[in-house]
């Protein structure tokens, strides 16, 4: 039985089983490789996507549970190549290093900023507490967020 | 010339922010097979039988290989490392066989179906066990191994021993006017936890093997893979897409030979990617180490003599640790003026996963040990730690441990700079509240790992330039920012007009690899030399076009101008087009290697580097609050003064410092690896291997110290590696100051700190480090007349 | 390894009774699936493969509601940690539950992990909601083809690993009382990891902060969270004094046999309990 998924506003059909982690469907079947399977157990945040506007870990979400929900991945943030304001400040502040954590960081932050448009530094840090970055040491990412 | 210092943004940021960058794990290859490794479930065993017949018959299976298909050994210094466990298992997780199949599930199922009969053998899990009386040998046949580099003593479970002797420490310790201070330290391993695991895709094309891989050292991968496949190095081509974090993990050959061997047998492309659990179990971690250090110090704080024994756990195979024994001379033996010194640095085999290189290898824990020891000295002689450091740090004309003569006063003025920062900002002591407050300032000595690099620059008819090297962008930005800035500066172009080709061993010349802070220096120097040749040729052609001698021309903003007459010249594109007609396209090539600074003859034995070509210094300061109830350490403030030579892109360096300090905070406070009785690493993933999260970090106050001598291009030094160097030292000294306890071990996790506060733990004791320094040596020093010889052989070592 | 599962192995229930029937039908091969966070990572932790026939509960509206009545609060088993924290944020007496729900795991996991899943993860010693609900004297409602049964948390914890097929944790009921409550957890980092020890405490205070009733629970120290009755007995009848409470806790540590784990040894989990009790008591004093 095919799974009907709504990804970045588009209806997609997956041939995977319902218990397949959403991150594998996105990457292997839909070629949306922004979400990264890094720890596969919900601790690193690199596969974070938005599910009905809430950040969730795509490694822990069976694709079957995503049926009927709106899934947004990092690829949706700049659909025509124009960076979102969040992406723009990241580029302007030169905070990207290896870059593997950013797709997840950006989705966590997108979900968070939608409900907390004027956050404090502590709030941003708390919102990122499920997103590991091994390169940057976070603070300059947070500076960029606070400059929005 | 164009301005070279600028905050040039990185060109790879946009795609990385859009999720479009294709790392090795993201690459789609048509018809690719998936591979799995069968790993040993025990730390030490004799392999009685491996039967792959059932596995071969399973659905989708295309190839199964074992030691019989790749019998060679590789290594650094000593060729001790087979691709597959051959006859004997030496660590829990060691590959015994590899399978390629149509799907990953099929490959894993087939790997599980391989029949292996093992006869358990005694294992040495700790260095104390490995060096203990009647220890079983990890390599009973060590005498038969090919020695790739002469000079280090080795034998039994000691893979390599490097020693330093300068002056007469015996006499110094015997002086009546000295206080002798002895300290013991122990540190655990550190996992890089690079987000992209080790991953490789191998395919055979036209009789040659093409490997796409997540590596920092494409030429090492090329040479080691060729060696293990028993083909000519030129039969292997390595290309490297964007790398999702390295930090030293990927400075060695890793999965590539397995993928290549399987691709050869299956006659199809093969993809092999470590799971996170495999990454944890077999990470080439920063090694655990044990250190005994003694100093003879006068009441005025003069260090008359120093001696130390450093044990570095290399795990089951020597690898990088053999090379890294070298670094003790320059890290533990660094920072301070020493009247006399003797150091023994030993890489020890154990039946555990091999260790490897990690950002400021060896330096992090030796700096921790040295700086804590320094504070213990200050306590013993009653001197202020800052005053002691100010008096004793290396300055212009001072001798290092191996007798090299240091140039320039750097650490002293850097301490002054830090004092200025301290005076300018209020203490955060009030934030400690009811907790214990401590502060510390530490110094550190590191270096740039120079060595060979090559570069080619092509000037294109559109006025852009293409830079071709074997450099890899691992995230630090050197390939995206530093190198194009150097080439653009030399040619009068904008950095965005310099295209940097991704690493390809078929295109770029030999390179040691990206690591050791060497990218901007070594690849930068080669790139600048290549660009200079282009510049010469460009000016020659322009000279004809503009009827002006080359000396009368300037290059800036993409144009050649007659000096003093702006607007009269031509665009570089026009000159490039003209050149194509007259003399053919303009290209230049350049190369670089370390000049080889001299040590004092006879001081260093068994070292790969006797003296530092480019020393790099750092001063770190922090304030901490320690919770007396739970042992939690909160970092209240952190400041860094870093010797960068010259900052080409200050903002990028700030990013490296904030990130490097954060990794150092992980090492100092959170990241712990423990090894179970079964020889396996107990931390299997992100849950129990805890790296700092956003809430565990503070903004680092940064001051870049420019102007110290450097042979790097434009006076640069590597800036990305050193920020992690003295974080553990600074934190440990601050925690010791806060608690009044003797901090001897890392990481300072809450349980370990509470143990210290409650006085629960036993003081360290190293029965396997002899009290008399000489008794530790395999080779008495009188016999050590070996002189440093440069590395050769398939594995280029490095940090 | 990932399993491919077809229609027969993944059923999306839309009513509680439908779910119960589907689970009963599947027998021991069936398993309920709520937020799935625990089940999805189980294979990586040496646990079972995802080879059961799952009945997804997340579309059952009645299990996603928090009903705040005058006498009690009824929480559907599929309420997520994030929804729970938000629904009870300003309800008196629920502070322990709110703190537990708002601080467990990390924000993205809290979006999907459910209260029912947290209570049913019998091999998860560090579950935050368990001690919080014990201190609040919560009851759980089990629904099976035979009907509805309401049992105490303690009884549920003892039975949860061997519930009969078709028996589903459907609701959690917390009585509204005049108690104040606090949940103090100790992760090794600031947040983002599982706590190595948890103290949940609910007290009813009289004049001069005299403790009239007390209910304490300890999580993560032993394999399963449980009440700390000797601490409760020692607190009742005296004014609530954080230092005295900590001292009392220090004298009662023998009540526990702490577990050793990769992240912390047993001695550490015990050693920090007195200060966690002190913090909990501090949080419950009227002026704080």
Characterization of this structure:
Chain B: InterPro entries: Ald_Oxase/Xan_DH_a/b, Ald_Oxase/Xan_DH_a/b_sf, Ald_Oxase/xanthine_DH-like, AldOxase/xan_DH_MoCoBD1, AldOxase/xan_DH_MoCoBD2, AldOxase/xan_DH_Mopterin-bd_sf. Chain B: It comes from Chelatococcus reniformis. The complex is a heterotrimer of chains A (148), B (799) and C (288). With 148 residues, chain A is an alpha+beta fold. Chain A folds into 2 domains: 3-76, Ubiquitin-like (UB roll), CATH 3.10.20; 85-146, Orthogonal Bundle (DNA polymerase, domain 1). Chain A has 5 helices and 5 strands; from the N terminus they run E-E-H-E-E-E-H-H-H-H. Chain B is an alpha+beta fold and 799 residues long. Chain B has 3 domains: 18-23 and 32-121 and 198-273, Aldehyde oxidase/xanthine dehydrogenase, a/b hammerhead (Aldehyde Oxidoreductase, domain 3, Alpha-Beta Complex), CATH 3.90.1170; 289-449 and 598-781, Aldehyde Oxidoreductase, domain 4 (2-Layer Sandwich), CATH 3.30.365; 451-592, Aldehyde oxidase/xanthine dehydrogenase, molybdopterin binding domain (Aldehyde Oxidoreductase, domain 4, 2-Layer Sandwich), CATH 3.30.365. Chain B is built from 19 helices and 33 strands. In chain B, the strands form 8 sheets. In chain B, strands 11, 12, 13, 18, 19, 20, 29 and 33 form an 8-stranded mixed beta sheet that branches. In chain B, strands 3-8-1-17-14-15-16 form a 7-stranded mixed beta sheet. In chain B, strand 31, helix 17 (650-670) and strand 32 form a beta-alpha-beta unit. In chain B, helix 17 crosses helix 18 (727-739). With 288 residues, chain C is an alpha+beta fold. Helix content of chain C is 32%, strand content 23%. In chain C, helix 3 (81-87) runs antiparallel to helix 4 and helix 10 (242-251) runs antiparallel to helix 12. Chain C is globular. Chains A and B meet through helix 2, helix 3, helix 4 and helix 5 of A and helix 1 and helix 17 of B.
Briefly characterize the structure.
The complex is a heterotrimer of chains A (148), B (799) and C (288). Chain A is α+β, with helices and mostly antiparallel strands and 148 residues long. Chain A has helices at residues 22-29, 85-92, 102-115, 121-127, 139-146, and strands at residues 3-7, 10-14, 48-51, 54-57, 70-72.
